[in-house]
Amino acid sequence: MPAATLAPSSTTAFPPAAPPLRRRIACMLYEGVLLFGVLSASTALFLLVRPTLQKLGLDSPYAIQGWSFMVMGLYFTWFWQRSGQTLAMQTWRMRVETAGGKPPRWPQAALRYVLAWLWLPPSAALGHGLGLVKGPFVGVLCAGLLVWILLAWLDPRRQFLHDRLARTRLVDLRPPRP
């Protein structure tokens, strides 16, 4: 039987294992290091354009936050739709894919990116509701992110909630241990 006919059924019958949470967290930290450079360059570009935005009345306190959110979204969705892997994911040998084992297309990758931020609004609302500022507020945000990550333990395949909602999965590309 040709290998092409076996590949889809093997992907659906036995979905690849998800990377362990500690590897995913390490990948997220490495991703943060890489994003520091991406966001530094995009902030420099924003600051060059800012005088024009001010003249047009488009500059607001949230403009740079929206710009950064959009730049990060383009970074992630471009890599995910292209190969299923960002640079950090290549290093840690994991990939985002659809149920068919292919990288997500643009709309699905963008949906995954937006859904991955769902932990933030409830955490921020709780911090604001409690009247927290600075360190304690950041602590509530970190706790919200930790809860979001730990929700993967409730999933039988150990997938993040945003992957389930976006119909994607994170797979471990390391060879199985004997």
Mean pLDDT: 92
Total E-strand runs:
2
Q: Given the structure, what is the number of helices?
A: 8
Side-by-side strand order of the widest sheet: 1-2
- What is the end-to-end distance? 26 Å
Structural Rg: 19 Å
The major beta sheet can be summarized as: 2 strands, antiparallel
Pfam family, one: RDD
InterPro entries: Pra-immunoreactive (IPR051791), RDD (IPR010432)
Main location: membrane
Protein name: RDD domain-containing protein
What does the model show?
The protein is mostly helical and 178 residues long. It has a domain at 1-12 and 19-104 and 170-178. It has helices at residues 3-13, 21-55, 63-82, 87-91, 106-115, 120-129, 134-150, 161-166, and strands spanning 94-98, 168-172. It has a two-stranded antiparallel sheet with strand order 1-2. Helix 3 (63-82) packs across helix 5 (106-115) and helix 6 (120-129) packs antiparallel against helix 7 (134-150). It is globular and about 60 Å long. Residues 1-11 have low confidence and may be disordered.
